[in-house]
Amino acid sequence: METETLLELYRTGKRDFAGRKLSGADLRAANLSKANLAGAVLKHARLFRTDLRGANLSDADLRALLRGANLSGAILQRANLAGADLSGANLSRTNLVAADLTSVDLFRADLRDADLRQADLSGATLIEADLSGADLRDATMSDRQLQQCCSLARAVLPGGTSYG
Question: What is the reported pTM?
Answer without folding.
Answer: 0.90
